Model the fold of this input.
Amino acid sequence: MAYHNSWLYFGNRFGLKIDLFLEPKPGVPPTPTHLGEVITKMKADNVHVIIVDPYLNRRTAETVAAKTGASVVDVTQFPGGIKGTEGGYIPLMDYLVNSIAKALAGNK
Done:
């Protein structure tokens, strides 16, 4: 799952199903009702990872993760957007793939 619907292509490329979002619609903050529905769906679908861009509210993702046992993974679409992604596209992709793989492996 993702906070925001901006990772469709990444998910498709790496075989990740990213179709559940903390935002009910892009740019619309989640309501308590929506978050309750997300938590229920995450538990039902056995979702283990929430990806969050640095400009979004990580605290909301952490709250949902605490209620579902998921891990929150910081992601960025631009090299240098997060420490460890400096140096261009390849370091960025290494960071993203390794961070998400580590979170998925830790939640088995």
